[in-house]
Design goal:
Elements: E1 2-7, H1 15-25, E2 29-33, H2 44-49, E3 53-57, E4 65-69, E5 74-77, E6 89-91, E7 98-100, E8 110-115, E9 118-124, H3 134-156, E10 162-167, H4 191-202, E11 206-207, H5 208-212, E12 221-222, H6 228-231, E13 234-235, E14 238-242, H7 244-247, E15 250-255, E16 271-275
Parallel strand pairs: 1-2, 9-10
Antiparallel strand pairs: 1-16, 2-4, 3-4, 5-8, 6-7, 8-9, 10-14, 11-14, 12-13, 15-16
Helix pairs in contact: 3-4
Amino acid sequence: MRLATWNVNSVRSRVDRVLAFLERTQTDVLALQETKCRDDQFPHAAFAAAGYEVTHVGYSQWNGVAILSRVGLADVETHFPGQPGFAKASSTADDGLLAIDAVAPVEARALGATCAGVRVWSLYVPHGRALGDPHFTYKLAWLGALQEQARSWLEADPDAQVALVGDWNVAPLDTDVWNPAYFVGKTHTSPAERDAFAAFSAAGYTEVTRELLPAPHTYTYWDYKQLSFPRNYGMRIDFAYVSPALRSRVTAASIERDERKGQAPSDHVPVVVDLAD
């Protein structure tokens, strides 16, 4: 079974690239992030014609996650239990303060489905925006809530086969960014974010792409600006945490760097994990 994850940065703009990737790599299950469309706008028919079942959750032109599978797709959850929501601030009357909406909607950032016995979660972790921003607090709360759930799944069933894959928006090591000094005082490399990411290991999960692809400066994302890709000004922020039972099945991993080339690429590339039958 070949499992891949890809922040596609608008699935409607890149449906042909995704289809070509699926055919070229013979991927069985693909988790997508940042689809940037509502459910009714998702190109279901194109993937169905290629032999894939599809589940998607998206509410607007922001966020959005999907899972495509040609090995079965069942028990869909459009968010994990306890997933925090986020409410944008809006200005109040005369005091100049900001008020947070009373109800914080759950965003389209997590989608779970069972594919050939593997519980796959497509995850788009909040960006955080800036240290001290409410979105940064939201990011840490979101990761903490996910870690608590992930731990509880293994406590309930130590043999559960779980894959937590996607765009984590955290660079765990200094060698996961092109210039650590550039990120001082910014998101993605702060101690709090790195601790939240590492907590999944303490919960019993293994990040298998690091284990199998340990070379420093191995990136999965390059900004569109400032010729970042030709200069290799990248970041490693797309990962695959797997449960112990699933780790025993992992045989290989790859980062498909060439997908950042060519016409209209995403700013992320697919990360692939191979599983034994």
